[in-house]
Amino acid sequence: MTIDLNSWEITWKFYLCNHSNQIEMKNTLFNAGLAIVFSTALISCNSKGTATNASSNDSLSANNSAIKEIVYVNSDSLLHNYEYFKDVTASFESKTKAAQADLTAKGTAFQREVAEYQGAAGNMSAEQRAATEERLARKQEELGRLNQNASTSLGQQEAEENEKLYNKISEYLKKFSAEKGYKLVLTYSTANPTVLYADKSLEVTKEVVDGLNAEYKKEKK
């Protein structure tokens, strides 16, 4: 039985690089989730309106009223200033780096064992070589499982945090829209420009961030 150390090193380095990229891509993933939140029409529970006569003036008034019921949020600014997102990001980065450090340490120890075996193999009997290679092969398989388990665990945690973020913002926007009489909340993001242009008077980012942070502050107590 032969231990393919070179192949193992390539696989391991690819895994570590992939998870480093995961940290860098995290903001993009969360931004994508936010695009779904904001792009969804958030219909206010308090429908406002009065009976009007069919006239051009009433039509114009209705159109102006409808415009006031549409607002947008800059999701880049929201994420940058939302304390919950900052805490989640820091926590996830810490977990990812800890997993990387643990896997790297185990991988380095395994490489050392393989190198020691390769250096001593010439002085070992055929039976000793077979037993050592079998043990190292089992250890290599175990490291592969640890690799996969770590990847799966981090992926699940990231999905769970995305869902929590989605729920927090979605639930808050429903209340916020009901209180303000908004019918539609759109989003603007440099990475996801679903809105090409919007007048600054329609932006409610600061109000939303302040409200979200106020709720999060209460939750942390």
Automatic annotation (TrEMBL):
Gene3D superfamilies: Skp domain. This is Periplasmic chaperone for outer membrane proteins Skp. Belongs to the Skp family. GO terms for cellular component: cytosol. SUPFAM superfamilies: OmpH-like. SMART domains: OmpH. One of its GO terms (molecular function) is unfolded protein binding. Keywords: Signal. The keyword Signal applies. It comes from Albibacterium bauzanense. GO terms for biological process: protein stabilization. InterPro entries: Chaperone_Skp, Skp_dom_sf.
